[in-house]
Design goal:
Layout (H helix, E strand, L loop, with lengths): L15 H8 L4 E5 L6 H15 L7 E10 L2 H16 E2 L2 E2 L1 E4 L5 E7 L5 E10 L6 H4 L6 E5 L6 H8 L17 E6 L7 H9 L4 E5 L4 E6 L6 E6 L13 H6 L4 H7 L11 E2 L7 H4 E2 L12 E6 L5 E7 L5 E8 L5 H15 L8 E5 L14 H8 L3 E5 L4 H13 L1 E2 L2 E2 L1 E4 L3 H10 L1 E5 L6 E6 L5 H14 L3 E2 H20 L3
Parallel strand pairs: 1-9, 1-10, 2-7, 2-8, 8-9, 14-22, 15-18, 17-22, 18-19
Antiparallel strand pairs: 3-4, 5-6, 6-7, 11-12, 13-23, 15-16, 16-17, 19-25, 20-21, 23-24
Helix pairs in contact: 1-2, 2-3, 12-14, 13-14
Bound molecules: adenosine-5'-triphosphate and magnesium ion.
């Protein structure tokens, strides 16, 4: 062995989520965080740790080859390589040679205290287009580090996922770990990253989310309520950032920018004013598990929205008054009966412990109105044809309905949110994150918005949720439904007497 120096490292993770990111050893691990939250340093630290962890071959050498991927060379040179070198290739810590030629590669070569030797490579590659496969050809790789993942196309990520684990060769014992790691700022909610992290949850992929550097709060009530950003004391890497790093950047920035870059929230392509802005918190209100109702807590509650795009939201109320939103059912171009024909068996399958007698539905009061020459109105159809007790709520004014949802969003019970929604409710969630919005009115000067919600694919399930929230608070017209049920029971009794 040539002359080598042994180095000691004292680089510690700067927060719980970073720590999890650095120590996870599953196949694929990704971290999403605000700017400056230590993501890139965390990735570099993990790559280095894993180089040292690779099991030594019969000569006591720990061999591995990692590829750091970015979408362009200027980005690789300007940030990724620079950050890596800050940690592992500066004047006082020469761990091997750095070759700046194409592709830039750090050949690490150093001894560990246990007498083994690390011989590892970190190759820096810009993979900007799917045809980048050429650049990877012939390169046997242990693992990939995808820096700023959201800038990479899904095709590139898929390609990388199929090309790790080939180094060192099986003859040398193979890699003791192989996979991908990646760091990113929050993407938009129509990005492939969102789909994997929040919706499809593929096996073997861990998606971690750091706390935001700022959080949005509402001050004041009713008409005087305003939202503002405040510093989040639980943000990570604060010790390495200047005082007030995040909150100072809020000044002069557009909300969309703050949301993504500082608050670590998913962006949305919506252009209007999100209706639950300041009240909705994606991290606090979403539960990533498929929530199930608790039978002893009472009936299943269903919020309905009719029209040509019927929607139903299923939830229940805990004894302490927390609203748990379990499932959403949305449809397109369907009448009430076809929707019910689909929904009733679905409910039976999903919630077998509940019979129709254990369900209560809440609807728009205009659901009493008959349409065309149908002999029954939607509320009558649900009660009489499908046997589920359905009530109208006391008001369908947008402000009242929004208030019913805000009540749960902002209330705390034993220091916990009084609103919990299953990540299964994908449309509601995207709506909460901005898709359900007041439309911007195209006038010069200050931004102005319509006073009613934009009718779009998010608004129907959101309307249904509002009726559910009103129902859960008892803002319900019980009388008219009771009358209907009595009349229909009397009619049925009379029919049976007269032999019909
Ligand atoms: N473990 C650490 N020890 C010491 N300093 C650190 C550590 N982690 C991060 N830093 C410091 O914090 C700064 C920001 O970290 P880093 O570049 O990793 O953040 P980032 O989340 O990748 O930011 P961006 O979103 O801007 O890429 C670094 O430049 C470095 O100065
Ligand atoms: Mg970074």
């Amino acid at each position: 062995m040539s002359e080598q120096t042994t180095y000691e490292f004292h680089v510690a993770a700067q927060g719980d989520v970073l720590e999890q990111y650095i120590t996870a050893r599953g196949r694929n691990t990704f971290i999403m965080g605000p700017i400056g939250s230590g993501k890139t340093y965390g990735s570099a630290m993990r790559v280095f740790d894993q180089m040292c962890e690779q099991a030594p071959n019969s000569f006591g050498v720990r061999k591995s080859r990692f590829v750091a991927v970015r979408n362009t060379y200027p980005d690789l040179k300007g940030t990724t390589i620079k950050d890596w070198c800050d940690l592992y290739h500066n004047e006082d810590c020469q761990l091997g040679k750095f070759n700046q030629d194409f592709p830039p590669t750090h050949y690490l070569d150093f001894d560990l205290e246990d007498g083994t030797r690390v011989k590892a490579e970190l190759v820096f590659l810009a993979l900007d287009r799917p045809d980048a496969v050429r650049k990877l050809r012939g390169l046997q790789v242990t693992g990939f580090w995808l820096n700023e993942v959201k800038e990479l196309s899904k095709a590139i990520v898929d390609m990388c996922d199929g090309r790790h684990g080939r180094y060192p060769s099986a003859a040398e014992g193979g890699p003791s770990w192989h996979g991908m790691i990646g760091d990113t700022n929050a993407p938009d909610d129509d990005h492939w990253y969102y789909e994997l992290a929040e919706e499809s949850h593929p096996e073997g992929w861990l998606f971690l989310r750091q706390p935001g550097g700022v959080i949005e709060v509402t001050v004041g009530k009713g008409e005087h309520a305003v939202t503002k950003w405040i510093a989040n004391p639980n943000a990570e890497n604060l010790a390495n950032l200047p005082d007030g790093y995040y909150i100072n950047q809020v000044q002069g920035k557009a909300d969309d920018w703050i949301k993504i870059n500082l608050a670590n929230q998913y962006g949305t392509v919506a252009t209007g004013q999100p209706i639950y802005k300041g009240q909705w918190n994606d991290v606090l209100h979403i539960n990533n598990n498929k929530l199930l109702p608790i039978k002893s807590h009472g009936d299943l509650l269903i919020g309905f929205d009719f029209g040509r795009t019927p929607a139903a939201i299923i939830g229940h109320l805990t004894p302490l008054g927390k609203l748990r939103v379990l499932r959403e059912y949305v449809s397109e171009n369907m009448g009430v009966r076809s929707f019910m024909d689909f929904l009733v068996p679905e409910l039976k399958r999903e919630f077998p412990a509940y019979s129709k007698a254990d369900m209560q539905a809440f609807c728009d009061p205009s659901g009493w109105g008959k349409s065309g020459n149908d002999e029954n109105s939607p509320i009558e159809i649900i009660n009489m044809e499908y046997g589920i007790t359905a009530y109208a709520t006391t008001s369908n004014k947008p402000e009242n309905r929004w208030e019913a949802v805000r009540f749960f969003l902002t209330k705390k019970i034993d220091n916990q949110c009084a609103f919990e929604m299953s990540a299964d409710c994908k449309t509601l969630r995207k709506g909460f994150n901005g898709g359900y919005q007041l439309r911007r009115i195209q006038v010069a000067g200050d931004a102005r918005y319509t006073s009613v919600a934009d009718k779009n694919k998010y608004s129907h399930p959101h309307d249904a949720l509002q009726y559910l929230a009103q129902g859960a608070q008892g803002e319900v017209d019980y009388e008219r439904t009771e009358q209907l049920r009595q009349t229909s029971e009397q009619t049925a009794a009379a029919d049976s007497l007269t032999g019909y």
